[in-house]
Amino acid sequence: MKVAADGPAATFRDPHTSGYTRVVMKITSRCFVVLLLLLLMPGLSLHGGEHGSLRLGLMPAVNSIPLLVAQSEGFFTVEGVSVELEMFRDQLYRETSLQTGRIDGSVSDLVNAVNAWYNGFPVQVASRTDGLFALLTSARSGIESIDAWPTRGRVQLGALQDSVIFYEAYRMLGEHGIGPERLDLVPTFQIPQRMEMLLQGQLQAAMLPEPVAFLAASQGAHVILDTRMLESTATVMLFTPDAMRSKAQAIRAFFRAYNRAVDAVNASPDSFRDVIVADGEFPPPVRDTMVIPVFEHARVPTEAEFDHLVDWMRNSGMISRRPAYRDIVDPRYLPD
After folding, report:
1. Buried b / exposed e along 254-278 (16+ C-beta atoms within 10 A)
2. Which of 127, 186, 202, 310 could lock 298 by a disulfide, CB 3.0 to 4.6 Å apart?
3. Would you say residue 305 has pLDDT above 50?
């Protein structure tokens, strides 16, 4: 094989290389160059959007709505983050998934966050969310309004003592001068079971999350109080410490998309009912009964709100030492 000594380099062809092989080699070479350029581009992740990826856990409750809408409307893509949403039916499985790193974060609540810290697995609350809970009474209870709440004796209440839902009952009833000593707590872990017991008159009262709360009301239960009477609920968006360290830009992009979804839902809540029911795995009957709250942009709980909840947990015997606000709440990931 000879190459010309002068002038342009001589071209040659290997007789053992077919035209098809040369095309494949050319395409492969170009793909390699493109891949190299992608690797060199600042801030670009090959594992998701421009700012990386997140895997987040949800429960079938209304505070998951902004995430469902952000996904369906493409707001995560617009903000450059790839988000995988995983629906959980079991709260314990969701918490286990957080602890093992299967998910980066979750829609949860401040009671769970404080309990996690207390048990040696600190998680970080990056934002409050807008949950909705209601206190309902059975049609057979004779209690059709808060004014009809018995002044003597105890009322059976279906709820879990060490839960955010009982904390919200404590707050709402407290504003009407009704303390926990006037409640006979009936622990019922499964929400569908609690609702069924209420409708059958096996419970005088129950705390239920929306969307099942107003579904129960459509079937004869009485809504006595709901958390729209409060300034906020103790529901939050939390992340693992590892995600907060290694996926900061993805979390910030997530919250920008979250705020876009909040604006979209507030502007036209009814237009998202089908998406919410389908993607949120809500029972189809709640489509028309579901109360979609007015959502707020991502923001953290205040120190006063945090202290009130921690005091309640200590007084209830759930924890024997208290965390500092900064141990759990981190506002640095919210949009400017």
Report:
1. bbbbbbbbbebbeeebeebeeebbe
2. 127
3. yes
Sorted by where each starts, the structural domains of the chain and their CATH numbers stand as 15-44 (no CATH), 53-131+233-333 (3.40.190.10), 134-229 (3.40.190.10)
Helices 303-315 and 164-174, packing angle to 10 deg:
100
For 249-260, how does the pLDDT look when each residue is reduced to its tens digit (9 = 90+)?
A: 999 999 999 999
Q: How confident is the model at residue 299 (pLDDT cuts 50, 70, 90)?
A: very high
> What's the predicted TM-score (pTM) here?
0.83
Please, how many CA atoms are within 13 Å of residue 136, restricted to the half-sphere of its CB? 32
- Which token pair is 26? 């050319």
- Helix, strand counts (H, E) of the chain: 14, 10
To which residue do tokens 């004779």 refer?
Answer: 142
Whether the per-residue pLDDT at 7 is higher than 70: the answer is: no
Q: Which two three-digit tokens encode residue 188?
A: 């019922």
Cα distances (angstroms) measured from residue 149 to each of 167, 172, 174, 195, 282: 19, 13, 13, 20, 31
Contact between 130 and 61 under an 8 Å Cβ cutoff? The reply is no
Distance CA 123, CA 114 (A): 8
Model pLDDT, residue 171: 98
pLDDT digits over 143-159, tens only? 999 999 998 899 999 99
3-state secondary structure of 118: helix
CA distance 322 to 122: 13
